[in-house]
Amino acid sequence: MNIPRAKGAELSRRDFLRSGAAVATTTLAPGVTLIAFGGSAAEAGTDAGKRWGLLIDANKCDADCSACVTACSDENGWKGTGNPETDAQWIRKVTLKNTTTGRETSLPVMCQHCEEPPCVDVCPTGASFKREDGIVLVDKHTCIGCRYCMMACPFKARSFVHEPTTNQKSHAPRGQGTVESCTLCVHRVDQGGTPACVEACAATGHGAIIFGNLKDPDSDISKQLAGYSSTALRPDLDLNPGVRYTNL
C-alpha cells in the first residue's frame, strides 16, 4: 500500500487513517461492507455538474403523516425504540410554532447536505465527506465514533448507533459505534432514482417533497425555486444547504 507522505517529515494521523480506509474492508453481515461509502468507489459515479437537493413545501406537509419517516426506516434498515436520546433519526418530523400568531407548521428534517458542511470540517479521520454532487455521507469504516460531527451539526441530523445493528441492508451499511445520517438514498440516486421519502410523500397524495438537480435550470426543483421564495434552515450560518423549505 502506498502511504501518502505529509508535507514536512511526518505523516499526520488523519492522512494515515484516510489512506488505510481506501483499501480496508470490514464485513458487517453477508453482502454488507463498511467501505460502501468510502474511498474512490463512492466518488466514481459522481458528477460535479450536478447538485442534488430537496424542496419541501410546509403547507403540503400533513402534521399527522409520517410516511417519509417510515419509508426511510424501511429503505435503510434503521428502527426507533421510542427513546429520542438514543434512537436513529435519519429523518424526523418537527413542529414549528409562531409565538405571535400561534400558527403551527409541521415539516421533515434530515441531513441538509450543506455546501459547506460543518460535520466534514470537524471530522478527524475524513469519515464525513461531501461528494462532488453535493451528497454528504459517512464512511463507516473510517468513522471512530468520536461524535464531533454530531456536535457540529446545527440541525441535529446525525445519530450515534448505540445498539447492535439488525435488518442490515447491503446498500445502507450501519455499524454499532459509528455515526449515521440521511444519505439522500444515494444508492437510488446513483441508479437514476429518487429518495424513498420523496416517493412515499408522493404516494400519499401530499407531494410535499421535490427532489432534483439544483444546477439544472430545467429541472422541476429549479423551476419551483425560481418561481417562489424559499428558505434554508439557519440561513445565518451561510452553509447553503441542499434542502430548502417554502411556506414556513
Helix content: 10-25%
Q: What is the approximate shape?
A: globular
Structural class: alpha+beta
What's the number of helices? 8
Distance between the termini: 51 Å
CATH architecture level-2 label:
2-Layer Sandwich
Low-confidence stretches: 1-42
Evaluate the radius of gyration: 18 Å
- Beta-strand content bin: 15-25%
| DSSP strand tally | 11
SSE ordering: HEEHEHEEHEEHEEHHEHE
**Mean pLDDT across every amino acid position:** 85
What's the CATH topology label? Alpha-Beta Plaits
Query: Order of strands side by side in the largest beta sheet?
Result: 10-3-11
Structure notes:
The model is unreliable at 1-42 (pLDDT under 50). The protein is an alpha+beta fold. It has helices spanning 13-21, 39-43, 67-76, 118-122, 148-152, 186-189, 196-204, 220-227, and strands spanning 27-29, 32-33, 52-57, 91-97, 104-110, 128-130, 136-138, 159-160, 179-180, 209-213, 243-246. The chain has a 3-stranded mixed sheet. A two-stranded antiparallel sheet has the order 1-2. It is globular and about 45 Å long.
